[in-house]
Amino acid sequence: MGDDVAAVPRGKGKLILKVDMLVEHTDVPPGMTYRLAARKSVAMCVSDFAAKGVRPDSFMVSLGLKRGATQAQVYELSSGFRDAVREWGVHMVGGDTNEASELVIDCAMAGFAEGLVSRRGARAGDILVTSGAFGYPPAGLKILGGKAKAAAGFAAKARTSVLKPTPNLRVGLALAPFLTSAMDSSDGLSRSVHTLARESGVGFEVRNLPVGIGVPEFARANNLDVEKLVLDGGEEYLIVGTVRKSRIAEARAAALRAGGTLMDIGVATPDRDIVVLRRGKGVTPIEDSGWTHLRRG
Amino acid sequence: MGDDVAAVPRGKGKLILKVDMLVEHTDVPPGMTYRLAARKSVAMCVSDFAAKGVRPDSFMVSLGLKRGATQAQVYELSSGFRDAVREWGVHMVGGDTNEASELVIDCAMAGFAEGLVSRRGARAGDILVTSGAFGYPPAGLKILGGKAKAAAGFAAKARTSVLKPTPNLRVGLALAPFLTSAMDSSDGLSRSVHTLARESGVGFEVRNLPVGIGVPEFARANNLDVEKLVLDGGEEYLIVGTVRKSRIAEARAAALRAGGTLMDIGVATPDRDIVVLRRGKGVTPIEDSGWTHLRRG
Lengths: 297, 297
Prior knowledge:
homodimer
């Protein structure tokens, strides 16, 4: 445990395994069809492989279908898995079908690697980077739930970020040689940064929040906190990681060549487990308030 | 698809993958604790590896826990996974935890093999074999549900067969070199025999039903059909397969050395897809009425 994926030694390399379960009432927002849900269940695994710099080879799915599920719904799910196969070049090699009281899709993904980017390699002085900007999915969730309004262009982008999460596998594979630590951001930016800090034994000073275009205007119009949207949203499926200062230009060029981007958002510090946001001359702590599935009473 | 496990080519060998989902309301009978449910979820995968003659290496689990799940329940689940680790010598390498509306445990298992026993190799004249006797789990389910009565000794054995299903991995590995086709019997004996017939392009004549000790008395006392209990029960986690006639003595010796047994229950015939039960001079068809999760309206 303790990392996004499991690595099983095999000969000179490693078998990389990941399971991720999508559950209807927590992971399927209003407006997400069965086809999109099936695609998302695979995207959730691809995102972890991308952050670890490992090309996924194959996946299997276990389905829990509601009693009375129709052939049309099963067909929709198949279409979503086919979308994922095409989009990320992975093979669907099997599955299991069951009856459950809500839609459950568990994706198990496998790949092979010589090594992978861990959560534990960040050192003080490394640059904190992300593979994109944050805030669209939490905005999209509110828009889909009818709890916020937005201009048409922003609303479309925000909704799509929720309904069609698109981890960038090419960028993950291109960045891997430069990352000293990394993980995916599906549980939110603050959770990712805190996790990297804890696992690597460093702290982080965030200097430039990676705020998505239009997110500040959306926050203002709906009386929401833009920093909270960016830090604690979740479901971004981006990469959060660290790069040695000396290699940052190379890393950025590699991300660009792969069709992505690399945002420099801060720096690793020797202050173990301390994560702060710089505002001018002062700093304020960033809470580890990432999104989590399991809420206990 | 089309077999109990998936085989992904890898170098000179194959990566073998299997997912199996346990869902509370269909797979967890009265009397099954969380610890036993966790153990069973792994047993379901081990059973398929055993039938394919492949040693499992590692597994991961995705958990769906009910809101309000207690630490004690989570601890119970961990104990059950540890039981499985000890019992079958597999490594637990990771997992994922979610909130769901009922307990869901999806086990994803991986192993490596040069080859595996398929469902497609039976030829007319091969001996139809099982790695044990049938009828205990359906009896146990009725006893646990308070719908049938039995003598204490039989009741204990029947209940245990349900609560603690124990695929025999050692026997599976020992039998593999002799099996021309095989699959596990978790969906019932009739379903397994029909599946091997269909996939291999043969028929089967069952000559000796593998009736568990005490099952006929149990059936009589509860006004149940003993043949139905044996053929259509399901959840037996035994191996159903075929062996060349010339190798049956060797196969039986190998099963015995591994601590198991091998029952000769019939013969493969050239009558494609025809599965019959011989009764004296006549035969009657055996229906493919195996147990299935997904019932549609």
